[in-house]
Design goal:
about 400 residues; alpha/beta; Rossmann fold; Ubiquitin-like (UB roll); de novo design (two linked rop proteins); 5-stranded mixed beta sheet; 4-stranded parallel beta sheet
Length: about 400
């Protein structure tokens, strides 16, 4: 029996089927719940058969990332918990509640890519202190792990920005052509994986592809962590199977469907789902595709009927315009002008051509930035103009469907 077959034959012990299975984050509690690290694994093969994709936003196949670094040898592993997305809390929750699952995944990935060192990155001082204490309790992993803090900015979690920070440079994204799996930390092949992805790797290494695929959909298997935010009575982080109906998520978070104007899926670089479509939409790429959305980093933010979608979106666009790296024209000039035009619409200015200006600037920045930030911002604005088209018309007439909105 191969190691991959052996892993697939293992059953998860009772109580260990979820990332937050252990209420105690200590290493001893972790070992009691999940057991020790498995022996040598064909990790890339397991990840491919399981259909594991990255949980940091892009949804890139984990097996391809592992192989891209492993084939070059002497790699470095970076566990990305920077979580620059303002609406997301899943990485922080995971690192506080189950740090050793993340560390297990880091160690398994390091073995796969021939790494002897790894970095665990966060933007939160409280999390960093907690992680350093947990790392000190581990021995015999064969991987030296350093906990690193980066600035709490929207772009801090972009993989090339992380690599730049670890190399002592400004934590801003590199040119799109820079591939960290070729030359990353100290110019060595570098695997940058979201901390949730590595926690899933730790589970997959123990329980195998068949177990991993026992939830989710055939095309998008497994569970994911979701941050419920916005107009909900019970905000927080849930672990749910991919493909879960949005209506179920809203119900669990205390957001009655009839109070929902729209739902922002994927965070500030995500897209809106109209409220009337929530009952027929699921948390999966396949279901969200028609809205230009994807599960992304697992943000589901509810917009209540007492809030104006155009006003809220203008605020987000303004924030994104202020989070630029300052390296290219689309960011420095295009995003502020696009945000300004959207803001004027939100303020109900009766100025002909504002809609055309938003669309013009969106077209100018798309695909032309040094990194993906302009594209993500343009995608969000396009979704806003599409989903709240009726509201745009009302605002151009000097009104608002939510008079109390500011």
């Amino acid at each position: 029996m191969t190691t991959a077959e052996a892993a697939e034959a293992v059953e998860a012990p009772t109580g260990a089927r979820r990332l937050f299975a252990a209420a105690d984050p200590s290493y001893s509690a972790h070992l009691t719940t999940f057991g020790p690290l498995p022996g040598p694994l064909e990790l890339s093969s397991l990840a491919e058969r399981a259909g594991l994709t990255g949980r940091g936003g892009a949804g890139f196949p984990a097996a391809r990332k592992l192989r891209s670094v492993a084939e070059r040898g002497r790699g470095v592993v970076v566990a990305n918990g920077a979580e620059g997305e303002p609406l997301s809390g899943k990485d922080r929750a995971l690192l506080l509640a189950a740090p050793h699952l993340v560390l297990d995944g880091l160690v398994l990935a390091a073995r796969e890519v021939g790494a002897r060192e790894g970095y665990l990155v966060t933007s939160r001082p409280d999390v960093a202190g907690h992680l350093r204490a947990q790392v000190a309790r581990r021995h015999g992993d064969g991987v030296r792990v350093e906990v690193v803090e980066v600035a709490d900015r929207f772009l801090s979690g972009e993989e090339s920005a992380l690599v730049n920070a670890l190399n002592g440079r400004a934590a801003v994204p590199s040119d799109r052509m820079a591939r960290v799996y070729e030359k990353g930390v100290r110019r060595r092949p570098t695997l940058v994986s979201n901390v949730e992805t590595l926690a899933q790797v730790a589970m997959l290494g123990r329980f195998g592809p068949a177990w991993f695929r026992s939830v989710g959909t055939p095309e998008e298997p497994g569970t994911m962590l979701v941050t419920m935010a916005g107009a909900v009575s019970a905000p927080g982080v849930l672990e749910v199977p991919i493909g879960t109906p949005l209506a179920d998520l809203l119900s669990r978070a205390g957001a009655p469907a009839h109070h929902v104007r729209a739902v922002l899926v994927g965070g500030y670089h995500g897209a809106w789902v109209p409220g009337h479509r929530v009952p027929t939409t699921r948390l999966s790429r396949a279901s969200l595709a028609e809205f230009g959305a994807a599960p992304g980093a697992g943000v589901v933010a509810v917009l209540g009927r007492d809030r104006c979608g155009l006003v809220e979106s203008a605020g987000i666009a303004s924030y994104l315009a202020g989070q630029v790296a300052g390296q290219c024209g689309p960011c420095v000039n295009g995003l502020p002008r696009m945000a300004l035009a959207l803001g004027r619409l939100a303020l109900r200015e009766r100025v002909p051509g504002l809609v055309e200006e938003v669309d013009r600037m969106r077209a100018l920045v798309s695909g032309r930035g040094a990194c993906a930030h302009p594209d993500g911002t343009a995608r969000f604005v396009a979704s806003t103009m599409r989903v709240f088209a009726d509201e745009v018309a009302v605002h151009l007439g000097g009104g608002c469907s939510v008079p109390a909105a500011r």
